[in-house]
Amino acid sequence: MQSRVFSRATSFAPLPYQRKPSHRENGAVPFVSARPIGAVSEGGNLIWGRQLRPALLLEASPMKREILRPCKTAASSPAEGDSAGDAKVAPIGFFGKYPFILTGFFFFMWYFLNVIFNIMNKKIYNYFPYPYFVSVVHLAVGVVYCLISWAVGLPKRAPMDANLLKLLIPVAVCHALGHVTSNVSFAAVAVSFTHTIKALEPFFNAAASQFILGQSIPLSLWLSLAPVVIGVSMASLTELSFNWLGFISAMISNISFTYRSIYSKKAMTDMDSTNLYAYISIIALFVCIPPALIVEGPQLIKYGFNDAIAKVGLVKFVTDLFWVGLFYHLYNQLATNTLERVAPLTHAVGNVLKRVFVIGFSIVVFGNKISTQTGIGTGIAIAGVAIYSYLKAKIEEEKRVS
């Protein structure tokens, strides 16, 4: 599902947060400001925590105490005596000195796990074309992972009440619908084509912001979306794997993740991202189970499972489903960690590059043939998304500064 909480995908408006500087009697004590919260695009990126709990985002960082420790100044007051002079500053570790190395590692793992997920997901559909059931498996493996994490206290489970549940249900329902329809599209057409269609996500988000939320969208942002629409149209007209089921499902996914963005803004909470991710995954799992049983249940019982086992064997079939679910959960979790470390502009560029990586690797791995017009159209669409992401991040940064 095209985080973080949840990939991805969909574009959430940045929520600025900056710690006010603290002052002492003899002068200002400088602090390092928290980075503004980035936007999230792509349905698979379930980065709910960053969107739903802006107030405690900084507190979730494992380096918070190191970051917010007052700098030791030379202009100490004599009244402070030796206690101030003898104060020891905790040693800064390797990653504290070179934070870009850790950030680069998170980017690499985010891309790596996302590419692996998309490739494994498509390979499963080649011998087991049941996207509703596979969607349930994705969420189920993630829920088991979260339950185990709660059991060992990493993290400690946050309490849930009726009011919070009411706020999270609409978010989880939209997430579930967007996730299932994304998988239906992946099963029906080439991975590269689905990602090209999902490049229209910024257009749906801009339209929802303008006409549903009543937010004013600058003309420059609207103009930057023109290449996206044109590029997707060019790619769709000549895509060799085109079919209406894959196209319509990808479009429904875009709309679902757009509404997920809207509802998430109404569900602001101070719960940490990992707990929110777990709760929303649990709710989404219960939402996805009934459609899977109704739509695919009879076929699965009659011949679906038997055909898959006959083709690849029981062990490979079960392990493939387990690993694809685990990669789905982990790449979204890594997306959360990545977004907490970078500014909105960096995230915007990174998200576009991630889509390029997925499209490129899927073409190489599966040997999908694309026409020249499809390739040009895809390039234009991705370039449009990059321009839109750059302009939007720049506008949000200017708002934050002002």
Helical region count?
Answer: 15
Q: How many E strands?
A: 2
Q: What is the quaternary state of this protein?
A: single chain
Given the helix and strand composition, which structural class is it? mainly alpha
**Largest sheet features:** 2 strands, antiparallel
For the record, the count of structural domains works out to 1
What spatial order of strands do you see in the largest sheet? 1-2
Q: Give the percentage of residues in beta strands.
A: under 5%
Distance between the termini: 35 Å
Overall 3D geometry?
A: globular
Order of helices and strands: EEHHHHHHHHHHHHHHH
Low-confidence stretches: 1-85
Commentary on this structure:
The protein has 402 residues and is an all-alpha fold. It is built from 15 helices and 2 strands. Residues 1-85 have low confidence and may be disordered. GO terms for molecular function: organophosphate ester transmembrane transporter activity; phosphoglycerate transmembrane transporter activity.
Keywords for this entry:
single chain, 402 residues, mainly alpha, two-stranded antiparallel sheet, 15 helices, disordered N terminus, transmembrane helix
